[in-house]
Design a protein that fits this description.
Helices cover about 20% and strands about 45% of the residues. With about 180 residues, it is an alpha+beta fold. β8 and β9 form a beta hairpin. It is globular.
């Protein structure tokens, strides 16, 4: 009986030590986010009052969350995802630890609404990205030709960004259909 108790105690000690080691490794991986924004651009808008914006956020630290975007060039800037051809407005996007959040044509994107004036090729549109952990990051989006689409480079080790909360664009604009 005593031997069984000693073995059980030893196994409990090993399990506790293993959990502590996992906890320490988890703390290291969930350190402060280290964000960099690259590849930012806005295709020249095809209509006068709306535009899209694209960029990539690379994170070499712990997880973060993009909560909103503001710009003096638009009354509103909203976050959108596109899945199976359906655009949905998002409340936020997760920025995975040691991963990327990609805003690119056909996928996640910014939507600039109620532009006071239409940006032209060669202009730059200033935005402020608001993150829950990292605070604000100022980014300049050069305006490119309407058909501009940079080659996407992807590879292993890049985390996948998922929308944090979903609202359809229709619900946002008050045109929900049954």
């Amino acid at each position: 009986m005593r031997r069984r108790w000693l073995i059980s105690g030893a196994l409990a000690l090993v399990a506790a030590t293993s959990l502590a080691a996992c906890s320490d490794a988890g703390d290291e991986a969930s350190g402060a986010p280290e964000l960099a924004v690259t590849g930012a651009f806005m295709p020249q808008p095809v209509n006068a009052d709306m535009a899209a914006g694209f960029f990539t956020v690379t994170n070499k630290g712990g997880a973060d969350r993009l909560t909103s975007v503001t710009s003096p060039s638009a009354e509103r800037v909203t976050l959108h995802s596109t899945e199976d051809g359906t655009m949905r407005e998002q409340d936020a996007f997760e920025v995975p630890a040691d991963g990327t959040l990609d805003f690119s044509r056909g996928g996640n994107h910014l939507m600039f609404e109620e532009l006071p004036e239409r940006p032209a090729v060669g202009d730059s549109v200033e935005v402020t990205l608001h993150f829950s952990e990292s605070g604000e990051i100022e980014v300049s989006l050069p305006v490119k030709e309407a058909t501009y689409n940079p080659a996407k480079a992807s590879g292993p080790g890049h985390g996948t960004a998922h929308p944090a909360d979903r609202r359809t664009a229709e619900a946002h604009h008050g045109t929900v259909r049954s």
